[in-house]
Amino acid sequence: MLEVFLYSANVYTAFVFFLVLLMIYYVTKLPTDIPPFPKPVLPIFGNLLSLVNKDVLEYFRKLRIEYGHIYSFYMGSQLMIVINGYSAIKEALVQNDRFFSDRLRNFHTETLVKNRGILLTSREIWKENRRFAVKALQEFGFGRPSFEQNILEEAQELIVLGKRFKHTYTSFRDLMDKIDVSASLLGNASVLVNCFPFLQYFPGDPFKVRLVKEISDQLERWCEYNVQEHRITYQKGAERDFIDLYISKANERHEANALSTFTDLQLYISLGDIFGAGSETTATSIRWILLQFLHFPEIQEKCFKEIDQVVGNERIPQLKDNEHLPYLEATIIEILRVYPVAPLALPHAVSKEIIFRGYRIPQGTTILVNLDSVLRDPSTFRDPDVFRPERFLDTDGHITKPQEHIPFSIGRRLFLFLATLIHRFDFLPVEGAQLPELKGILGITYSPEPFLIRAVRRW
Question: Which residues cross the membrane (predicted)?
Fold first, then answer.
């Protein structure tokens, strides 16, 4: 019995000794000329275990205090560099954009979006298609009066019917529900599977990889169906929307026998990018504002009184009212500051090795731009964790914004929806229930946890 015990103890000691040697070897092999990183860096896992059961944004704030504006973080064996603060972010993305503008190649980009689209592609595909998308969306966006009217109708139908009547058919509602599920799952799933690609093959789909891929494929098929419908009715010179304009551009390249990135697959994925990003960001911002109204009803009341004074009760808010509703605009700006939709932005990659602020950043390194470090910087915003719309109003009640305020733009769609909702409803807590916490879930977007709310008609 004693011999068995001694043998087991020796095996255990040898195993621990081996792990210590492995750790020493691994740590001594880590580069010393890159930005500093938290310790320990474990073999296989890197710094990942330090994120378990932690608020990622709060953890990154602490790392910034300890290591400064630029620090490293190992996602498994993959090096990631986090850039914090307005000056460092501007220096990287504006002054050195040719080095920091590449996109990643990983499970997410290769399997889910097939290295296509306008959000996660690299180099020429991204540059050419993004340039086209910006121009097309401007041409068919708010430059046309009909676009504002469509959004006003959507807002009205949301109020009257509780839904957009045109989109009540089952397949569309089912797709929207699945996109919501995918968005909530994709953040954690992408991080783990990007670090450890073999996880996607685990039996039982514990990381929901196959579910997310299935939803992604459904969205692609839905986009393909809409594109094929457009091809049937397309008329050159009478383009009706983004899809028609894309078809025209692709035909133009084909007729010229020119190499082109304007392919059917690129169009399907681009539509999914636009559709997903547009709906999710607006909905998330509205949820954050309504949650704030539950905690700070006086802010909601100020917004309503301002809208009521300008609009009255004979019509609904319109875009032209925006310049006369500074407090509402300040409230939207403040929600985008405190609860930005994408506080860590989309990851970038370094296209070529560079020395940045005295540190070597190897080619292919993942770059994470921490917008939260700017939007909650106490040197720019006094009491940065306090929700206070007045910080964006000057003494005359006009909007004023520092250059450091760099989240997604307010968006006219968000303004119209929110103004219409506040105009018609008073949003109140559920009677007898505790107020929902002001806690966020960091996935594809930074969104509040699900909560219940009462909407009481004002008139």
Answer: 6-27
